[in-house]
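During the reporting period the student researcher (J.K.) took over the structure-prediction task from the postdoctoral fellow and processed the backlog of single-chain submissions. One of the processed entries is reproduced below for the supervisory committee.
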Amino acid sequence: MSELLIRPEAGHDEAAIRHINEQAFGQPAEARLVDALRAGGGALLSLVAERDGMIVGHVLFSPAAVVSAEAETHALALAPIAVLPGYQKQGVGSALIEQSLAELRDASHGLVIVLGHPDYYPRFGFVPASRFRISCPFDVPDEAFMALELREGAAPQGGGVVRYHAAFSDM
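J.K. obtained the following structure tokens:
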């Protein structure tokens, strides 16, 4: 198997990213979310995975906040991450997440939230967000709504409710 190249999204990647998200999720909602985040300035970090010159995976992080009566703490939302079905279970998604989290740490970001599979994300250090008293603005299973402190103490002391980028409200 050829080497996997992880790189930032480029303008000419949009159609491939749309295709990957549609194929990975079996419907267009996530592809529309990526387009809306990109158009609304919400694509903070967007990486693609290439194998043999073909884009086979994509991950996107957008700005979010943890809001309480006392404070608002900057966070990032990991959503979506997508890998073409024929390339799943080959480490593409893991490579995208590992590199993106390293880049976010290097850029001094502190907190990432994700709504995802509770058996997958803990391998990257994610734990239920409820451990930080952080809650989701909609009803989801506790174990599926997770957070990761990229630096210790980045989660707000008093917790709060996550506020996603406005593009998420159209999902």
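The committee noted the following: The beta strands are 4-8, 45-51, 54-67, 72-83, 111-115, 127-128, 134-135, 145-149, 160-163.
J.K. will present the remaining backlog at the next meeting.
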